[in-house]
Amino acid sequence: MSLPPDHPVCDGRTRDADLLLAARGERVTRHPIWFMRQAGRSLPEYRKVREGIDMLDSCLRPELASEITLQPVRRHGVDAAVFFSDIVVPLRLAGVDVDIAPGVGPVMGAPVRTAADVAALPELEPDALTPITEAVALTVAELGSTPLIGFAGAPFTLASYLVEGRPSRDHLVTKALMHGDPDTWNALLAWTARISTAFLRAQAMAGASVLQLFDSWAGTLSLPDYERFVAPHSTAVLAGIEDLGLPRIHFGTKTSDLLLAMRDCGADVVGVDDRTPLATAINRLHASVPVQGNIDPALLFTPWETLREHVQGVLDAGRLAPGHIVNLGHGVPPATNPDVLTRVVEYVHADPVR
Question: In angstroms, how far is the first alpha carbon of the chain from the final one?
């Protein structure tokens, strides 16, 4: 399926945006920068419009989701908007009983742990994605030449929430199912791969110019487990959007040992978290693909000179890769001073492209 002719990449609005140039390994006019979780969290204007509205409802109101997506572009001058959503939104749209509990995270009405549980999972119907496509279209109409990044949770991360029933740091139940009943495990991840693919494609067809697959919990796995039980399903998602011709970013946290395997799933850009020095990550990737990252979010709370030196180090390391999209090594902490983010953007944009 081809993108529609009025898509921002097809009609030229975002085709040569610095972020897309960097993702293709081409020369940029200035270093592109955006922040994961920039849509909301630290912004007072976000807290104002979200007042009294729960997270998933906020994601599914097109006008509100669009407004929140646009806020950090207006305030910080970043080089991309990232669609305001949550990785469990496609689960909700498919009909899974899921909510986001304040201070806890995604909580399932009932865990999914047996073959019968997996067989009972509903498929994500195209009509259910209407709130997403409407929000994306509203946002793209306002962004002009600034690209919109669409994103989805990777199959493993979605599956881990379904199996555990809520966030987990050790993923004991998930790993037990993975090893103890691989047939059920693979059926579950095939399902999560299908809904992630559909979610990404819907955002792309509505106007997103870049797509990111986000694997929050992949770093809990060994490389052999990742390659055997997870990589085939992430590969299926990235292959399922390849025909669209948009840059595909693959990002996970605590994934230093997995970077090559994540690249080999079909990534055009590999995201690097803040636990791995960017130069080390580029070396592990054999400088074979553009990278994204990896300012340490904790340093947003340090004196400017400390933060400035760190950002400069990230910029200098990024020159070792074919392309570099500047970002944090994870999301914006809620307590971040927005003025610090704006200052980082200005500093990155002022650094000469060499």
Answer: 38
Residue in 18, 79, 86, 273 annotated catalytic: 86
Please tell me which residue in 46, 161, 226, 347 is annotated as part of the active site.
161
Tell me if 292 is assigned to some domain: no
CB atoms within 10 A of CB 283: 13
Do the strands 98-101 and 105-108 form a parallel or antiparallel pair, or are they unpaired?
antiparallel
The answer as to whether 88 is a domain residue is yes
Positive or negative, the Cα torsion across 132, 137, 140, 141? negative
Query: Is residue 263 flagged as an active site residue?
Result: no
Q: What CATH number is given to the structural domain containing 223?
A: 3.20.20.210
Question: pTM, whole model, 2 decimals?
Answer: 0.96
Does 308 reside within a domain? no
Q: Is 169 a catalytic residue?
A: no
Residue 161 known to be catalytic: yes
Q: Does the annotation count 113 as an active-site position?
A: no
Of the residues 15, 16, 24, 50, only one is catalytic, namely 50
46 counts as catalytic: no
The answer to whether position 59 is within a domain reads yes
Q: Which of 13, 37, 201, 248 is catalytic?
A: 37
How far is the CA of 325 from the CAs of 102, 278, 291, 293, in angstroms? 31, 12, 6, 6
Give 10-residue mean pLDDT values along the chain (354 residues): 92 97 97 93 92 93 98 97 96 95 88 97 96 98 98 97 91 96 98 98 98 95 98 98 98 96 98 97 97 97 98 98 97 96 98 91
What distance in Å separates the CA atoms of residue 172 and residue 125, rounded to the nearest whole number? 32
| Alpha carbon 117 to chain centroid, angstroms | 28
- Which of 18, 331, 328, 241 has the alpha carbon at shortest distance from 147? 18
